[in-house]
Amino acid sequence: MTQFFRLSVRVVLLSVGLLAGTVFTSFAQLGVGRPVGRKIVDGIIVKVDNQIVLRSDLEGAYAQEVARAEGKPLPPDTQCRILQGMVLNKLMLAKAETDSVVVSDDKVKSELDRRMAYFVQQIGSEQKLEEYYHKPLRQLKEDLRPQVKEQLVQQEMQEQIAGKVTVTPREVKQYFNRIPKDSLPYFSTEVEVGQIIKFAQVNQKAKQATIAKLNELRARIQAGEDFATLAKQFSQDPGSAAEGGYLGFFKRHELVPEYEAAALRLEPGQMSPVVESQFGFHLIQLIERKGETFSTRHILLKPETGGNDVNEAATQLEKIRKRILSDSISFAKAAKDFSDDKSTSGNGGLLQNRADNSSYLPLDKIDPAIFFTIDTMKVGHITKPLPYRTDDGKDAMRIIWLKANRPPHQANLTDDYQKIAAAALNEKKNKALDEWFEKNRTGVFIDVDPQYADCKLLNSAL
């Protein structure tokens, strides 16, 4: 792949794991490795005021680039580019200190909870995660906290420097025309795929059992037991259970309406009756109000779903499918009106390529479950309802639509405008970062290990 579509290392390092809906980082990316009993020779290779870059930081980031390359050779200057991105990041942290740019502890906690919930969901349970890393969940969070806080500060600085940068269609065209014709990337087969999802509805028996269990816990708390202790024992919210159900501070409209409305009716220390939301059933305790924000803790229980509930979802989807096939409604309109998947319903049900925000997905990178479904489909066809489990573990059914199949081709403005626009925007943002670096690098102390002198780290252009 040419420079055309390689995201700048510095932007990747600043953004990793922080952008909503993008790829999440692993613990390895954040410096929390599984103990393997081997010693690593480490040392400081760059100092930027009070900030440092360790040799292990560089080696770890380089190993990630190698893994992402999937066997393809990396450009010879890759290590220098990575290190330059790290120096820029550390310069941002140093300037953030002098400019008093900070992120709140609550924001750090919220980001930690979000990542931890994802890790737990990926590995299967809190217990499996703790067993894998040989550490309790609380310790894993503490290990991650410094890196997460640094990344949030870097993100805030990057937003201040380049967040308002945009590109016009003329700039996109000019960017594309600057690329030598023999350097244009060649894209493999890409597809547009849509889906409509219906969650399995929880039957009344399961709902009542869950409500009864929460009312039992509520009675125990009213009788004197500690809310946080019971939350640790019973709550099914992986992001907050280990913290006694504590969610931290949120502003109005940042939590689901049912939860927020119930919380704001309480006085500090009071506990709500059972509250239902899209996530399940909650007991909520208001802890504190501070200006326009409030903090709570909760106990979340999720009712079990059964086969009959999935069958009802399948029945609803089959009716929707027949309407689409009879042309009484478009797939996009049906997705907007009926899909329970909010991440795709607003996009006409189409899955999004997070790398460039287009709706075209490389066939060799698509979810295997979808790949094997569409492999024998013709363009325009819609599957019958298929079983599906959401990322957060909900039972569901879905129908899949193969909207388009784009054959392999060389990049062009007509078919690949969104990709080209993303690359042009990335270049323009990097230019803004380079200009900021040139303007601010003389205001801080930077010391580079002689081993990396050839990287020209104090020059913005490598």
Automatic annotation (TrEMBL):
Coiled-coil residue windows: none
Matching Pfam families: Rotamase, SurA_N_3
Residue ranges of every copy of the PpiC domain listed in the record: 188-288, 291-401
Name of the molecule in the record: Peptidylprolyl isomerase
Domain of life: Bacteria
PROSITE patterns in alphabetical order: PPIC_PPIASE_1 (PS01096), PPIC_PPIASE_2 (PS50198)
InterPro entries, A to Z: OMP_Chaperone_SurA, PPIase_dom_sf, PPIase_PpiC, PPIase_PpiC_CS, Trigger_fact/SurA_dom_sf
Classification via PANTHER family: CHAPERONE SURA (PTHR47637:SF1)
Keyword Isomerase on entry: yes
Keywords for this protein: Isomerase, Rotamase, Signal
Recorded GO MF terms: peptidyl-prolyl cis-trans isomerase activity
Keyword Ribosomal protein carried by entry: no
